[in-house]
Amino acid sequence: MTSDKRERAYSTVLFDIDGTLIDSNDAHAEAWVRAFAEIGIRVDPKQVRQAIGMGGDKLMPSVSSVEEDSPAGRAVSKRRGEIFMTELLPHLRPFPDAHRLVAGLKARGFTLVAASSAKREELRRLLAIAGADGILDGSTSSDDADNSKPDPDIVQAALQQANASPEHAVMIGDTPYDVAAAKRAGVKTIAFRCGGWDDENLADAIAIYDGPSDLLQRIDSSPLSVRG
Length: 228
Description:
By secondary structure, the chain is an alpha/beta fold. The protein has helices spanning about 25-40, 45-50, 55-65, 70-90, 100-105, 120-130, 155-160, 175-185, 210-215, and strands at about 5-10, 10-15, 110-115, 140, 170-175, 190, 205-210, 225. The chain folds into two domains: about 5-25 and about 95-225, HAD superfamily/HAD-like (Rossmann fold, 3-Layer(aba) Sandwich), CATH 3.40.50; about 25-90. Strands 4-3-2-5-6-7 form a six-stranded parallel beta sheet, with helices on both faces. It is globular.
């Protein structure tokens, strides 16, 4: 009598959304730059772009002298959200095969949870654009964490929602902040280049792919494959 001992290393996949499933990082950077400009603060667009993936609480002081909980910070944060939601988000598109990747992992039996630094309402709209709403088993946003990426809070909240232990989960993200947040939570990361970061910045990931389509095509040789 033989037994099938094939098994997966992971049972849960935590998804970053911006820059991972949706081509939105440039739009986020534009919204921040414009919001700062409206209150008379000039910030370096390149520096802002490199900070995308952090939460606003960390991005603002990293690119300016403004703290999120200051009057200026609250004004910038509010205006950034308005610009992004009303002017930029309607034009965003998912990366090729984003929906197919999420649906394919669900069909393979993975528990799927979003672990995003986006605000809850932004995340709801982004998941719809990605075609992931109705497929994921849950989602966590910046509203569910005291500290944003690269702190581990959002990843830990996603693990709790998935009822998963860190060693049985893997994060899929596109920035070094995703990799760092996951690492601090004891979770391995699969990284995508489609968010604009190179392999050197994503070096702590266990595997790096161009984006959803690349991982989907190579799923059976990836860390998400069934091992015999």
